[in-house]
Amino acid sequence: MHERIGIAHIATGDLLRAAVAGRSELGRAAQAYMSRGELVPDALVIDMIDHRLQENGPDPSFMLDGFPRTVAQAEALESMLGRQHLPLDHVLCLDVPREELVRRLSGRRTCTQCGAMCHVIFDPPATAGVCDRCGGALIQRDDDREETIRARLVVYDTSTAPLTAFYRSRSLLREIDGTGSPAQVFERVVAQLNGGQGGRPSGGPAPTAARS
Question: CA angle at residue 57 from 1 to 34, to 5 degrees?
Answer without folding.
Answer: 60
